[in-house]
Design brief:
Layout: E1 7-11, E2 13-14, H1 44-57, E3 62-63, H2 64-73, E4 76-83, E5 88-94
Parallel strand pairs: 2-3
Antiparallel strand pairs: 1-5, 4-5
């Protein structure tokens, strides 16, 4: 990868229903008050897909912090998160020292 290269991961991403200490949320993905931060039942598809991944593949959908951890292990950092109405695209770039 070159210094200007980007990696895009298109996937469903799980969001926490409430603000938790140490867990980053992006303002574009936060529901307005009084709704839950993850839009509650309006975001049920991602959670249904998470259960399907668990039952069929013994896997799971990831949260933003989990994707950051995976990227860090590969020497990448999150640049931007794109909300694609039901799915997300996460943009990574090489971490500069």
């Amino acid at each position: 990868m070159g210094p200007n290269s980007r990696v895009l991961i298109h996937d469903c991403m799980l969001f926490h229903p409430i603000q938790e200490p140490g867990v980053e949320t992006f303002e574009v993905n936060k529901a307005p008050e009084p709704m839950l931060l993850n839009f509650g039942a309006g975001n049920k598809t991602a959670y249904q897909e998470d259960l399907t991944m668990w039952l069929v593949f013994n896997s799971k959908e990831r949260t933003l912090n989990e994707l950051k951890t995976i990227g860090t292990g590969a020497g990448l950092i999150v640049t931007k998160v794109y909300d694609l109405a039901g799915t997300m695209a996460v943009e990574f770039r090489i971490a500069q020292d």
